[in-house]
Known about the structure:
- By secondary structure, this protein is α/β, with parallel strands linked by helices.
- It has 19 helices and 16 strands.
- It has helices at residues 33-40, 43-51, 62-69, 95-113, 155-172, 176-182, 189-195, 206-222, 224-227, 236-256, 270-273, 278-295, 309-316, 328-341, 369-373, 386-392, 397-407, 422-428, 440-447, and strands spanning 3-6, 15-20, 23-28, 57-59, 77-81, 117-119, 127-130, 133-136, 142-144, 299-303, 320-325, 345-349, 377-382, 408-416, 451-458, 465-471.
- A seven-stranded mixed β-sheet has the order 12-11-10-13-14-16-15.
- Strand 11, helix 14 and strand 12 (345-349) form a beta-alpha-beta unit.
- The mean pLDDT is 92.
Amino acid sequence: MASLKHPASLRDPAGYLVKCDNRLIRVIRPEFVNEYRLLLTGPWLQGQCQTGTVGAFRILHTDEAVGFVGPEAAECLCLEHDVIDFPSYPTEWPLEMLCAAAEHTLELCLQALKHGSGLKDATPFNILFQGPRPVFVDLLSFETRDVHDPTWLAHGQFVRSFLLPALLDTRYGIACHTTFLSRRDGIEPEEVYRLLTPFARFTPPFLGNVTMPALLAERAERQPGKMYARKRLSNPDQATFVLQSLLSRLVRTVQTSSTRRHRSNTWTTYSETCTYTPAETARKTAFVEQFLKESRPARVLDIGCNTGHFSFLAARYGSRVVATDLDPEVVGGLWRRAKEEQANILPLVVNLARPTPALGWRNRETPSFLERAEGHFDAVFMLAVVHHLLVTDQIPLDEIIEQASRLTTEWLVIEYVGPDDSQFKRLLRGREALYRWFERGAFEKELSKRFEIIRQDKVADNGRRLYLVRRCNAQ
């Protein structure tokens, strides 16, 4: 099998990841083998893997590891990870998912304390979501803890990369996923300090997490060795108590930061203003449900999912669903429901017209949404989406259909909404002349260039129509 170093691990001094086809191998360098062999084989971490809190793995035999990685694996410790079906990143998470990842990190720290372990870093990139459930995947973030040390050196990183983006979202409506598009490691307290009013600077939670660090930053620059030196207490129970108190306080702060004070845009209430009658909604649901019953797609991408009605329908028929919408509040609500119902749905903040780009060193550490999505799904839903891409984002119809053909390996359920539709007219804003050509025949002609139309049905009296199509040359 062809092996390729995974760029997501390039910053880790203790090891690296190797991708072999669809298998993911972690290689731990020789100088770290003894430390991690003890940690990884301990009953506590094994138990976390069994419950799904930490990503499952198995230790490879040397001969098997050499076959994957090469001769250098003979001196290393090699693990094979269970692969998360669709990796996502903080650039695509709503506030609710960022806070869930933060709580997951802190709870793992608290549990690790009881077993002599800790986390040496605290970044959202250590977390992936399996459906709505957060999973900690960076095993090399664990370390054996000095029981006399009351400090958590990752505290500042946690505040920058979890807490402050969440607070800006909660208090000021700055969507947290946008922070990570330009700041991989979160936001500095000094930046937040400048945004706050004089009153807000001295109120919790900003006083302890923004104002004090900002005011002490100059001192830290003058005395870096003193500020970041390890501190040891003679009583290990006291050291543990201090650390537990810090982590518990952070948990409470995260929990109070997970509720928005600002409504997002009008799409949050789209389902309340939608022009479908109950009968038309039932007809649309029946069309999609018939497809799910007949085809049972394993992986579904629901583009423009809104409240997730069709995502949950697909999940009930056994599909693994990735549901995307451009409104973070909508996606956050969908995540909460998926978590409550334990539905296999991964909700993400993604705008197909401007999808998440590749980021990191050489744009390789986190692949773009399209790189992860194209060819991954055997069914794609584009329900009441095309007219938004066509009018609002001014994407040509042929480009929309081509992109759909790249996302699905077989099936597409797509909806036609024409210029006579009231919602279409609302988007036009006086530009009717530009879209007179967009009648149903033109839509079907373009669709037929890349798909075979299997079934279609009128779902509303205003001309809205659903199509089940199959990708040309699909196996």
